Amino acid sequence: MSKTHENSSEAKTATVVQARESLVLVRFDDQAAVKKNEVGYIHVGDERLKAEVLRIRGRTADMQVFEDTDGVRIGDRVEMTDEMLSATLGPGMLGRVFDGLQNPLHVLAEEYGFFLPRGATVPPLDMQRRWEFTPAVKVGSRVPPGGVLGTVPEGPFTHKILVPFSEPEPVTVTWIGEGTFTLEDPISRIESKGIERELTMVQHWPVRRPIPAPLLRRHYAERVFSQTPLTTGTRIIDTFFPIAIGGTGCIPGPFGAGKTVLQSTIARYSTVDIVVVVACGERAGEVVETITMYPETKDPRTGGTLMDRTIIICNTSSMPVAAREASIYMGVTLAEYYRQMGLNVLLIADSTSRWAQAMRETSGRMEEIPGEEAFPAYLDSSIKSVYERAGVIQCPDGEQGSLTMIGTVSPAGGNFEEPVTQSTLGTVKTFLGLSYDRAYKRFYPAIDPLVSWSRYLDQLAPWLSKNLDANWVHDVKRMQQLLQQGDSINQMMQVTGEEGITLEDYLIWQKSVLLDMAFLQQDAFDEVDSCMPRERQLESLRMIKQLIDRDYDFKNRDEARVFFTKVTGLYKNWNYSAPGSADYQRYKDEIEAAATGQLAK
Q1: Does 247 show up as a binding residue in the annotation?
Q2: Residues 361 and 270 in one domain
Q3: Whether residue 306 is found in the same domain as residue 342
Q4: Contact 28, 61 (CB under 8 A)
Q5: Domain range for residue 544?
Q6: pLDDT tops 50 at residue 9
């Protein structure tokens, strides 16, 4: 939609005066104004290295280079674009794998091979593909910024073509097309402030600026308080530590605790339309696994593959640090774009620790005053600025779209006291702490219920009471208290043995183990148990509540142990049974018999 930077770049240049790894100090040759986060290209022979302005001091500026800087010399020319680092937004992004600068990696590999040459770029979208455009407005219509001009089909969704978000006021449509168009063809002409111009299906947006910000400021959109939970199909999340649609959550955990498997499960079964995965600084092997697994994973929502409604932003640990830092913002911007169409979007960032480490490296090279563990002093505000872009938005056309954000954190040694985890904890409203001990015991998910929490449980209480059970929140808190009691008794038994506690305490511990083993644990590889609908979660919670609330009359610990072992086995088999099957009803009957004291010993 905008090609003005190609002309303006000729009028503003700079010269390299110092190079320090991925950071380059440049001096401007003229009096032209330079903006923070403006993009420029360093000319090294025939190569053009993309860079971004981070800091301006007088007539010099620090620029981070998104490529390897070998060969950059003092005196090299820098071509400024007068534009911020931006995302290209339009039809055709679903199902694609981009790097942190929105280069489509599959296209790059086809043109240049698997070892990408420095400075190679291709358009993010297929500009020659034709799309069937259906207008939604007529000539003479007044359409606000972010309003709908028309639609094109994109995979299982209807992709809305929107008026540029940067328009200051409603525009008048003077011509609207209908039929098939490429992304370079004009599909409409609009008039604003007496100036008429053509629009294509593509628009650009700076990645470090939230898309809805100007719409909210001018009251064309509205931020809505979320009162609906996100259903993930994972019992411990949906029941004990829920995340609201449009909310934020984090999954910290040590290496090998199951973060990637849990993320994939959430992406596959969550009640969202679009999934954006930002693989930021992860090992290449893990990223390759994600890229190959998603196209082979059947999507339970659409019947196609999970990749059909997924975008992957891929920046491995072997890629330049600067591009890794930008990848989070690129992913959030693409997610916000689909939210503006009234869709529910889930963004999974893996991991924000690598992203923070990239900031630390860049900050160190800029010789900024370091904060805790050498992270920049603005680490906390940077993390908050990313998570704050989540939320529910009332779009200009009246539809509501949401962006739910879940970030994983990889604290070194599983230390949750390190700065990135602590800053994230102060930002998100759901904390799903993974435990190495639980992962080692083959518990899945390895979410530790004793350290995890959710501030959404009370916020969503009206919805949960109305749609599930009037006492839902009260019952869940009671179950959480039982887990705490069971853990205290277990610690006591580690010192005194079973004989050192009363039979009453022993029963409390057995009930907490039953709750953990039968309700909190799931089998990620079982077709039925891997995802439990919310209605069945309600049924399951009621069943296990009956077992826990019952007064037992065991004569000794052995009798209690045999009973709870048998009930746990029945419960697990019920979890594996498909609804409506003979096993489903049989195991349910036996569990209910146990709850009423009728189970055969």
Answers
A1: no
A2: yes
A3: yes
A4: yes
A5: 469-596
A6: no
